[in-house]
């Protein structure tokens, strides 16, 4: 597999008052680690005041400290986004603290890898809550604030699994299909009220979460090794590459892009 040499960081800083999200307040759910953490840092570099929502408090506080050390503005809000009260409390606190909400990156999510006939009701309830219900509730809590400000931009993390099925991931594929259509439906309903909503659909990502998925697939005999993935997507996707795709969709650079799915998979779904 070709070695990934790293993704160039933007030289735009929040302190300079420039950037594609300058003057905006952005929420990143699941914003503490992985592609969500990369997005939190990148959005701040591009001028946003970033609200990081995550259940992982230590990692969330760490990414906020990193942003502040680089001259950005960020706050951490601990919440289990699968719980309605926690979501509403966090979004209310964000709106009170920053005064407005302009951008939402719905990134929180997880995965279940196991044979379909071993998938339990508890697996179903948990993953639907984490991947789909959370997106529904966070968006529902945020939209009134965006509408009050005259508009906003929402990006939802779906997956190549919304269109390309993988054995042992039936439940995960179902949730990501729901996330992809959720983004389109929000876009259609709120287009004429100044809201854009798009989905970013990553392939296999080089994060601890992505590595755990690969290991879990291997446990059941499905080859998702780097050598196998080299055939389908060349290499593992860097979390920063997902973050840059989300930034593009969130920013005014994508002002006429609405209800779209942006695949960050290096031809996985095109071949």
How do the helices and strands line up, and which of them pair or pack?
Blueprint: E1 25-29, H1 34-45, E2 49-54, H2 57-69, E3 73-78, H3 84-98, E4 103-106, H4 121-148, E5 152-157, H5 170-190, E6 195-202, H6 208-219, H7 226-233, H8 239-250, E7 261-264
Parallel strand pairs: 1-2, 1-4, 2-3, 4-5, 5-6, 6-7
Structure overview:
- The chain is α/β, with parallel strands linked by helices.
- It has helices at 34-45, 57-69, 84-98, 121-148, 170-190, 208-219, 226-233, 239-250; strands at residues 25-29, 49-54, 73-78, 103-106, 152-157, 195-202, 261-264.
- A seven-stranded parallel β-sheet has the order 3-2-1-4-5-6-7, sandwiched between helices.
- Helix 5 links the parallel strand 5 (152-157) and strand 6.
- Helix 1 (34-45) packs parallel to helix 2 (57-69), helix 1 (34-45) packs across helix 8 and helix 4 packs parallel to helix 5.
- The protein is globular and about 50 Å long.
- 50% of the residues are buried.
- The model is unreliable at 1-16 (pLDDT under 50).
Give me the count of strands.
Answer: 7
Instruction: Label the structural class.
Output: alpha/beta
Q: What would you call the shape? A: globular
Name the beta content range. Answer: 5-15%
Helix and strand run: EHEHEHEHEHEHHHE
Radius of gyration: 18 Å
SS field, number of helical segments:
8
Q: Report low-confidence residues grouped into runs of 5 or more.
A: 1-16
For the termini, the CA-CA separation is: 18 Å
Q: What composes the largest sheet? A: 7 strands, parallel
Overall pLDDT score: 93
Strand order of the largest sheet: 3-2-1-4-5-6-7
- Percent range of helical residues: 40-55%
């Amino acid at each position: 597999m070709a070695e990934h040499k790293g993704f160039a960081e933007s030289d735009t800083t929040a302190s300079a008052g420039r950037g594609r999200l300058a003057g905006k307040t952005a929420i990143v759910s699941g914003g503490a680690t992985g592609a969500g953490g990369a997005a939190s840092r990148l959005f701040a570099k591009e001028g946003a005041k970033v609200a990081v929502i995550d259940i992982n408090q230590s990692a969330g506080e760490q990414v906020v400290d990193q942003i502040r050390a680089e001259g950005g503005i960020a706050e951490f809000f601990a919440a289990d986004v699968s719980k309605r009260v926690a979501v509403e409390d966090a979004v209310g606190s964000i709106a009170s603290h920053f005064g407005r909400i302009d951008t939402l990156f719905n990134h929180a999510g997880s995965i279940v890898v196991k044979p379909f006939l071993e998938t339990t009701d508890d697996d179903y309830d948990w993953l639907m809550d984490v991947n789909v219900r959370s997106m529904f509730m966070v968006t529902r809590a945020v939209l009134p604030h965006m509408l009050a400000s005259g508009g906003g931009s929402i990006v939802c993390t779906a997956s190549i699994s919304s269109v390309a099925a993988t054995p042992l991931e039936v439940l995960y594929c179902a949730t990501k299909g729901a996330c992809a259509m959720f983004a389109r439906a929000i876009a259609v309903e709120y287009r004429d009220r100044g809201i854009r909503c798009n989905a970013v659909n990553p392939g296999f990502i080089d994060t601890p979460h992505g590595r755990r998925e690969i290991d879990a697939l291997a446990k059941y005999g499905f080859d998702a090794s780097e050598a196998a993935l080299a055939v389908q997507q060349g290499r593992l996707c860097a979390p920063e590459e997902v973050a840059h795709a989300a930034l593009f969709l969130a920013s005014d650079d994508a002002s006429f892009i609405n209800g779209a799915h942006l695949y960050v998979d290096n031809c996985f779904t095109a071949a």
